[in-house]
Amino acid sequence: MARGMELDPLLQGVLRGDRRALARAITLVENGAPLATPLLRALFPRTGRAHLIGITGPPGTGKSTLVSGLARAYRGQGLPVAVVAVDPTSPFSGGALLGDRVRMGKLSGDPGIFIRSMASRGSLGGLAAATSDVILVLEAAGFPRILVETVGVGQAEVEIARTAHTTVVVEAPGLGDEVQAIKAGVLEIADILVVNKADRPSASRAVAALETMLHMGQGRAHPVWHHGQLMSLEAPAPSETDPAWEVPVLRTIATAGEGVEALHRALERHREWLWETGHRERREQARMARAVESRVLAVLGRQLRQRLPGGDLAALVARVSRRELDPHTAAETLLQGLTREPPPGA
Amino acid sequence: MAEEKIRVLIAKPGLDGHDRGAKVVARALRDAGFEVIYTGIRQTPQMIAEAALQEDVDVVGLSILSGAHMALIPKVVELLRAQGQEDVLVLVGGIIPDEDVAKLRAAGVHRVFGPGTSTREIAAYIRRAVAEREQASHAQQPDDPGQEG
Ligand SMILES: Nc1nc2c(ncn2[C@@H]2O[C@H](COP(=O)(O)OP(=O)(O)OP(=O)(O)O)[C@@H](O)[C@H]2O)c(=O)[nH]1
Ligand SMILES: [Mg+2]
Questions:
Q1: Residue B148's pLDDT is what?
Q2: A60 lines ligand 1 (CB under 6 A)
Q3: Which ligand is nearest to the CA of A65?
Q4: What domain count does chain B have?
């Protein structure tokens, strides 16, 4: 919770790498507190250099265990690492049980690592609405690698592909029908595919299924946020100056650390590819378009809700439920009322 | 838009590997609307304090059965204070002899919940204690516009 706090010391603290200030700043941003906006504004010029890595996949496939291994690999490389681990908010109580740290105990005691758990707070798609702002704070605090673990939702977690530079999709054998488990856009968002729990007998089948699907889906595409819509932009034909990225399918046994080094290397290779080919800028543009748009939409939505005459709304809804009016006509009536009214404060 | 949630760290210090009780409390607190960070078993005081710092929690709940409470819990309180988290509520659950309860209170533990305490009672206590602490911190800062909520 945010208790008596001022912008300047907080800002200086974050930039200095003070962990308490950083943790406080994240809370403010997560809560959408009034200080969050000036804070993010002041921190923004210090961002834009980190490699943002999304780790997604169905529940229980070993994402947290892999994140822990990866963080240690980066530490071996001498790089500080921040981890943001998102778990779902219960729609009934509004509470959340954030358990990803259980698998990250080995990371404790290292001042080069900062782990923060986040509840999704009602947003769907595997992240929280404030996740990208929390990432900005961590970038400004100087972390060159930021690992973001999504909620294990098992569906197309496109949200992470709009938030990270590199998306790792973690599958595990034995999730039932392999094809079922890797449906819904997973191949479009994956830059790296991992079959974890490779100690299980059906691992080879899962790897084979993924490789087949990869080869069938030609023309590498990456989802891009364009004019308010998620579009899958065909990647331009690869050339000598713009080589295509071949999505690798890696096997890991996260609990034993097996294959984690190879995953780490694949991530660093993808980072080089992004940075050298100009793909980083493309993804960065899509990320920033979304950052701007989501703010505009959030503010417009709030303003519109405030201007909706509550009594009219309730009366109209009552008529709709009695089938005296259809929802379209009710919506049009409300919208006409809005466009006639002057904006607040005018 | 602004939304504040009470954040609670639940940890199990000491070497015994039973975390059923801690998990039950963690789930119950989630169902009471808190954001609960569960760190698991075999946590050292250093690990607990570090997690409390990074997660910026309002409450640290320690579940302990091993009898090592006097060695571990005051250390957690001390580390929290040293890192500027003196306002975090420290709660303990487990079987603690009466004379130790008094000592833990003196060391800065806010409340010890014995076995059989209902999770509803724990949730209500947390809600009340966090609200009181918020009020106290506002009262100390007359200049605070009080608009963080
Ligand atoms: N056999 C086997 N078990 C593993 C492996 N990796 C992780 N596990 C186990 O799988 C379980 C889930 O691991 P997590 O790392 O928590 O998985 P997760 O994907 O983060 O889970 P959620 O965040 O709940 O979606 C744990 O019991 C791990 O010990 C592996 O390579 N092999
Ligand atoms: Mg996890």
A1: 40
A2: yes
A3: 1
A4: 1
